[in-house]
Design brief:
Layout lengths: L13 H16 L10 E6 L5 H12 L3 E5 L13 H9 L4 E6 L4 H8 L4 E6 L5 H15 L6 E5 L6 H10 L5 E5 L8 H9 L3 E5 L4 H4 L4 E4 L10 H7 L18 E3 L20 H20 L4
Parallel strand pairs: 1-2, 1-3, 3-4, 5-6, 5-8, 6-7, 8-9
Helix pairs in contact: 1-5, 1-10, 2-10, 3-4, 5-6, 5-10
């Protein structure tokens, strides 16, 4: 990678991505290795998290390292007015690696510029979530046996959804075709569409979520409408349940179709989908453990 920190998926070349995914497969075969013996990782979660924080902390433990940190910024000195700079510099005294989630876009990149300790971005506002992207890519390759020439349909909050923004960049190396399904209020931002245009990546935009679109799809990537990103709660109420995937909508879908979701879900995937063999979001979350083990070793320069 271009840096020993991982703050954005666009740092990763195609070769970087494939190497990390190959190492994740090795960790799936054997997740318990003492590669971090004597190392301490700090998990700084200024925003709430379940899967990301627990999978990173589990990865550190399975690799033989130790974890310090917090999951509630209100219990830290930031609630007293301590700046992000001072928090990062202070924690850098104690840890060999910092994994952080923050509500401000660019916070992880800023942290990486003020410390020599590697930073892993676990989500910064509506900007980037590179470890989620890599576990998504791992899940896609595992279920499709390839990353090349796939049709990926992204549904829901495409405006604020950092996971879909990052996934577009990650998949850009593999000749994808995208369908973007969102209400006008949550449509894919121009920045991401311009990125696709510059690289001649095919995409189409839709406001209706139809079986016709689903039936053209290899990966159906559902997203939650994120209440915490809205300043206008009336706008949130208008769009929160606009798309709901139900099991009956999958009856003519491709055999290889798999349904992904970065979780948590609210109402966008009905519970009757859970028993469909095409539902993959629980296994997807499990894949986060192996991928994050590979990411930790990557940024620390540890050979697998």
């Amino acid at each position: 990678m271009e840096s020993k920190s991982l703050v954005s998926i666009d740092q990763c070349s195609k070769a970087d991505i494939l190497r990390i995914l190959d190492n994740a497969r090795k960790f799936e075969e054997n997740p318990n290795r003492n590669l971090l013996e004597g190392k301490i990782a700090a998990t700084l979660f200024f925003e709430p998290s379940t899967r990301t924080r627990l999978s990173f902390e589990t990865a550190i433990n399975r690799l033989g390292g130790k974890v310090i940190g917090f999951q509630d910024a209100s219990t830290t000195s930031s609630s007293k007015g301590e700046t992000l700079k001072d928090t990062i510099l202070m924690v850098s005294n104690y840890a060999d690696l910092i994994i952080m989630r923050h509500h401000l876009e660019g916070a992880a990149r800023y942290a990486s510029e003020i410390t020599d300790v590697p930073i892993v971005n676990a989500g910064d506002g509506a900007n980037q979530h590179p470890s989620q992207t890599l576990l998504d890519l791992y899940s896609i390759r595992k279920t499709q046996n390839t990353l090349d020439n796939l049709t990926i349909t992204m549904v829901g909050d495409l405006k604020y959804g950092r996971t879909v923004h990052s996934l577009i960049v990650g998949m850009s190396h593999f000749n994808p075709t995208f369908h973007f399904v969102a209400p006008d209020e949550l449509r894919m931002p121009e920045e991401q569409k311009n990125f696709c245009d510059q690289l001649n990546i095919k995409y189409s935009e839709h406001t209706d979520f139809t079986e016709e679109i689903i039936n053209q799809t290899d990966i159906l990537y559902m997203t939650r409408v994120q209440r915490e990103r809205f300043t206008d709660l009336e706008e949130y109420e208008r769009v929160k349940n606009v798309y709901i995937l139900r099991n009956e909508m999958l009856k003519e879908s491709r055999e290889n179709l798999r349904i992904l979701h970065p979780l948590p879900r609210v109402n966008e995937i009905a519970y009757d989908v859970d028993d469909n063999p095409k539902a993959y979001y629980i296994q997807q979350a499990r894949n986060g453990l192996f991928t994050r083990e590979a990411i930790i070793c990557e940024v620390l320069g540890i050979q697998i």
